[in-house]
């Protein structure tokens, strides 16, 4: 769940002291490896479940603190945003009925969370990215009031030296920037843990990297962000960019993002990963150590390695090595961060079973996976799977290319079954969870595909915000039923609860596909743009997208009666006739207030500004179209 005991601001001297403790922890870790002090006679699994909190309108609900107080359960903790929660499952010995036990506890914890959320006026939802999120949900006022999160944001933003840039392209295209790490809060996952012995770490970690792509392809559940249809697992691209502190440079230089797949296979031990991450990534946070690791080792106790764990928590490999202590004994785990939250606990455990099984099965089938495929192939496979899901082309061991679905069905599911059987798992569990995944792959009905198909089936009925609410409401409804996503019916528009919540703010009504000009351009261009696009206003902005004026159709008509071209040389610039400093609203402005402003002033248009930049426009024509839809609905009633 991350180290919470951190300093709010870390000065240079504190960082130097912390780095000294960090290096001391690394040396202690090395000694523990040399002296064979890690637990190695047992295999355990575990998981962390992240989830969204939503309100009655299926929008993010910033009630995490209140929900935690209502539960008073140590399994639960906060996440970055006040509309997210996380809980830890109890570790399970890998074998027997551990998979069904994992699903049972996920269900029990979700029931506790749902009851507490409802007592606070909300509900819970499992999905990789919440479809109803809008950018205004990601302000610092939505950050959980925890010193760790503010310290992390301040450190990363300072290191970045400017806004975080986001660019993703799928069916649609997303290009925007944000001033904090809060975009990370768009993502929720189901993180599974696999305990390994030090002597087997390198081989198992490399297999985990190799199988990441097919596991991802079968599990995708995050196709939508801000209404845009992007990657099948948009969470992967978004998470990497949300905390990418690299700066552009005038010369080519190798720089690794803090969220990464890695750079190469592991050769010998987990120590390689810790050393590389310390060498490549600046220390962001500091904390007071609570023991001397060498003294603890000398006295036969497991050291906390607090500095090492804190630094490790700020580097986000998709397969991350974790140091932990169970019953006084130190151990190593591989944390799989690639799996999205949802669509249901059954689907989540099926994804985990496929991953667990592939690790054991591929070790048995291939031995050292690095002899059968290159790291670059595994890396390329991973991002292809995130972008295309089951439609990705994957290069597997031996160099053969195959569509992800065919590779999974023809080759990898039998390998995963072998791995689970060899580990002594219950046959009924194996049939249930691998069968769930097989049916999903055969039908190509992933969570991501279900969301996209539901949107397509609704067509253009209602505004996009209403369709996204319907998808979100349908997810919540079908999750409560518990059946895996392959059996879900498509979302229906009426499931969103009606139109009201979808027009509450300007953000839900504004047009973001804008035609603009600069003030130095000729008025003739404005006139043509109005005719070509059938619009009555054209916004004037500068090179930084800051609104500097607006030209109305009325101003052009007035110009026709007064303009004498023989009195000047060259075309008339827009700056001569534009209205300077027009009245504006922000995306969060209530729609009723915007209507009132337009009515009182007799305006038919309102520019929408955020952070000084033009982001949209609300027009009389848009509001009339909405009014027409609402009137039709009421008359049909």
Quick rundown:
The protein is of the alpha+beta class and 637 residues long. The chain contains 20 helices and 22 strands. A hairpin with a 5-residue loop joins β18 and β19.
Give the overall form: globular
Helix content: 40-55%
Instruction: Let me know the largest β-sheet.
Output: 8 strands, antiparallel
Overall mean pLDDT stands at: 90
Binned strand content: 15-25%
Give the radius of gyration: 27 Å
Strands, count: 22
Structural class: alpha+beta
| Tally of individual domains | 3
Helix count from the secondary structure assignment:
20
CATH topology of the largest domain: Creatine Kinase, Chain A, domain 2
Explain how this protein is built.
The chain has 637 residues and is of the alpha+beta class. It folds into three domains: 12-443, Creatine Kinase, Chain A, domain 2; 455-502, no CATH class; 506-636, CBS-domain. It is 42% helix and 16% strand. The strands form seven sheets. Strands 1, 2, 3, 4, 5, 8, 13 and 14 form an eight-stranded antiparallel beta sheet that branches. Strand 17 (516-517), helix 17 and strand 18 (537-541) form a beta-alpha-beta unit. Helix 5 packs across helix 11. The chain is globular and about 90 Å long. The mean pLDDT is 90.
Indicate the topology:
Elements: H1 12-34, E1 44-54, H2 64-71, E2 76-78, E3 84-88, E4 92-93, H3 98-119, E5 123-125, H4 147-160, E6 164-169, E7 173-178, E8 190-196, H5 201-210, H6 212-219, E9 224-225, E10 228-229, H7 234-242, E11 259-260, H8 271-280, H9 293-298, H10 306-312, E12 316-317, E13 319-326, E14 329-336, H11 345-366, H12 375-388, E15 393-395, E16 401-403, H13 404-422, H14 427-443, H15 447-458, H16 464-481, E17 516-517, H17 523-533, E18 537-541, E19 547-552, H18 553-562, E20 579-580, H19 591-601, E21 605-610, E22 613-619, H20 620-636
Parallel strand pairs: 11-12, 17-18
Antiparallel strand pairs: 1-3, 1-4, 1-5, 1-8, 2-3, 6-7, 8-14, 9-10, 13-14, 15-16, 18-19, 19-20, 21-22
């Amino acid at each position: 769940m991350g180290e919470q005991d951190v300093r709010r601001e870390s000065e240079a001297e504190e960082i130097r002291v912390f780095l000294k403790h960090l290096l001391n922890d690394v040396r202690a870790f090395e000694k523990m490896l040399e002296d064979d002090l890690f637990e190695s006679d047992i295999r355990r699994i575990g998981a962390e479940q992240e989830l969204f909190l939503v309100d009655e309108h299926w929008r993010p609900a910033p009630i995490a603190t209140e929900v935690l107080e209502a539960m008073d359960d140590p399994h639960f903790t906060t996440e970055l945003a006040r509309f997210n929660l996380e809980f830890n499952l109890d570790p399970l010995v890998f074998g027997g009925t551990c998979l069904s036990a994992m699903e049972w506890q996920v269900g029990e914890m979700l029931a506790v969370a749902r009851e507490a959320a409802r007592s606070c006026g909300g509900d819970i939802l499992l999905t990789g990215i919440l479809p109803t999120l809008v950018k205004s949900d990601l302000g610092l006022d939505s950050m959980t009031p925890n010193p760790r999160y503010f310290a992390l944001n301040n450190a990363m933003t300072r290191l970045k030296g400017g806004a975080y840039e986001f660019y993703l392209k799928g069916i649609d295209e997303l290009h925007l920037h944000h001033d904090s790490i809060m975009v990370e809060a768009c993502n929720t996952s189901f993180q599974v843990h696999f305990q390994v012995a030090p002597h087997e770490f390198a081989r198992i970690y490399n297999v985990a990297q190799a199988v990441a792509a097919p596991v991802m392809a079968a599990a995708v559940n995050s196709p939508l962000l801000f209404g845009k249809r992007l990657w099948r697992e948009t969470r992967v691209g978004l998470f990497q960019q949300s905390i990418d502190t690299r700066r552009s440079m005038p010369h080519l230089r190798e720089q690794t993002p803090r969220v990464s797949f890695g750079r190469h296979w592991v050769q010998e031990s987990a120590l390689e990963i810790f050393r590389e991450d310390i060498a490549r990534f600046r220390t962001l946070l500091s904390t007071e150590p609570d023991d001397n690791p060498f003294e603890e080792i000398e006295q036969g106790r497991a050291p906390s390695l607090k500095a090492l764990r804190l630094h490790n928590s700020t580097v986000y490999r998709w397969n991350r090595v974790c140091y932990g202590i169970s019953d006084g004994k130190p151990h190593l785990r591989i944390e799989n961060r690639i799996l999205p939250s949802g669509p249901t606990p059954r689907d989540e455990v099926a994804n985990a079973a496929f991953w667990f099984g592939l690790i054991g099965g591929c070790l048995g089938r291939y031995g050292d996976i690095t002899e059968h495929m290159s790291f670059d192939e595994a890396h390329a496979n991973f991002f292809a799977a995130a972008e295309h899901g089951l439609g990705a082309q994957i290069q597997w061991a031996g160099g053969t290319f195959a569509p992800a679905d065919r590779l999974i069905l023809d080759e990898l599911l039998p390998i995963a079954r072998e791995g689970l059987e060899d580990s002594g798992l219950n046959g009924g569990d194996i049939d249930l969870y691998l069968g769930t995944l097989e049916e999903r792959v055969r039908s190509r009905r992933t969570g991501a595909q279900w969301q996209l198909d539901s949107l397509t089936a609704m067509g253009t009925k209602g505004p996009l915000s209403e369709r996204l609410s319907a998808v979100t409401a349908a997810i919540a409804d079908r999750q409560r039923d518990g059946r895996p996503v392959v059996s879900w019916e498509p979302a229906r528009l009426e499931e969103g609860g009606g139109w009201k919540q979808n027009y509450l703010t300007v953000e839900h009504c504004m047009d973001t596909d804008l035609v603009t000009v600069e003030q130095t351009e000729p008025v003739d261009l404005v006139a043509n743009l109005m005719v070509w696009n059938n619009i009555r206003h054209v916004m004037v902005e500068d090179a930084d997208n800051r609104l500097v004026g607006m030209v109305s159709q009325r101003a052009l008509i007035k110009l026709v009666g007064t303009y004498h071209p023989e009195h000047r040389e060259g075309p008339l610039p827009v700056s001569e006739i534009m209205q300077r400093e027009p009245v504006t609203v922000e995306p969060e402005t209530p729609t009723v207030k915007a209507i009132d402003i337009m009515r009182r002033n007799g305006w038919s248009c309102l520019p929408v500004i955020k952070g000084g930049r033009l982001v949209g426009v609300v027009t009389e024509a848009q509001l009339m179209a909405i009014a027409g839809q609402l009137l039709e609905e009421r008359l049909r009633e």
